[in-house]
Amino acid sequence: MGLQSSTMLKTISRRGLFAGALAGALTAQTRKVRVGLSGFDGHPEEILRVLPESPWIELAAVADDGSDPVARVQGLKNPFAAKATHYDALEDMLAHEKLDVVAVCNNDGRRAGAIRACAARKIDVIAEKPLALTRADLDAVYGAVKQSGIRLGMLLPMRFDPPYLAMRKIVAAGEIGEVIEMDSQKSYQLGARPEWQKHAATYGSTILWIAIHGIDLMLFVSGRRFTEAASMQARVGFPEIGDMENVTASIFRMDNGGAASLHMDYLRPESAGGHGDDRLRIAGSLGVVEYQESTGVTLLKKGAAPWTIRDLPPKGSVFLDFLNGSRGLTWGEIVAANEATLAAHVAAGSKGWVRIGNGG
């Protein structure tokens, strides 16, 4: 099957990082890549966890940017964040620091504005997902990226996890034939939720916040496109979480006429091992490949016994990939994930099929 994984780059090349607005601004011999972190509400650990092994990256500054107080305190326990210059507002950080990249990890409602503020100063951005909550704001982000010429990445780290990298290789090798049907599950423990997730203005919806992972994985593994979406989402019980939906379901029409489905919930018991139960099943004309944590990656083909894939590719980093030129997550893939997710969100409100645009 040719499932041997390529060796991870031992040294991160800076050529990709400087392909856009940073071209010629830095070299490996002059200084480190200076990074600013704006907000602690998303997953800043995707940035912070690579710093101990990446001495060429400097976390120069952090901005609170309206972060949840608990998240801010937790984030500042990181030694790299603790020693960085601190600002209350993103605008102050941008005005006083010379940065090469800003990692935008604020709440969902503030994200589009933060990206545009960085673009206005021609600073590359890697942002939490989604990029925006509305059609108008998403188009404004696209416009800012195009006008400024910056590079914009997004925190979709699951596509760099070994099981999904293996599934992509299996599908790309033709082992299951033409992809015809896909199913994705995301089930999480509810736990204590920050205030910003309880309000639609700062959260958007559970489809916007969580579905984008499952959508991206289906697109990434299958190599197909989605053309239409239909959805529902609701909060059933749990009045303490406010506007936050705890159940969702979406279906997508694929470009070849096939179907894909995604369901999510915040109903996983605290007694369950681990915070989440993520599953992905890709069915094709010649077989099925599927993943769940309890069984691993399994390939099923006609006339053959089920095969559990043991030799998985190494785990990657979405942040290091961005700095290395976005080979593992392209701008086109970011646009596709945002467009399909926004369409699914809109469909939940309209109670009908919504066409998925090309965007960007």
From TrEMBL:
<dbReference type="InterPro" id="IPR000683">
    <property type="entry name" value="Gfo/Idh/MocA-like_OxRdtase_N"/>
</dbReference>
<dbReference type="InterPro" id="IPR051317">
    <property type="entry name" value="Gfo/Idh/MocA_oxidoreduct"/>
</dbReference>
<dbReference type="Pfam" id="PF01408">
    <property type="entry name" value="GFO_IDH_MocA"/>
</dbReference>
<dbReference type="Pfam" id="PF22725">
    <property type="entry name" value="GFO_IDH_MocA_C3"/>
</dbReference>
<dbReference type="InterPro" id="IPR036291">
    <property type="entry name" value="NAD(P)-bd_dom_sf"/>
</dbReference>
<feature type="domain" description="GFO/IDH/MocA-like oxidoreductase">
    <location>
        <begin position="164"/>
        <end position="289"/>
    </location>
</feature>
<dbReference type="InterPro" id="IPR055170">
    <property type="entry name" value="GFO_IDH_MocA-like_dom"/>
</dbReference>
<dbReference type="GO" id="GO:0000166">
    <property type="term" value="F:nucleotide binding"/>
</dbReference>
<feature type="domain" description="Gfo/Idh/MocA-like oxidoreductase N-terminal">
    <location>
        <begin position="43"/>
        <end position="152"/>
    </location>
</feature>
<protein>
    <submittedName>
        <fullName>Oxidoreductase domain protein</fullName>
    </submittedName>
</protein>
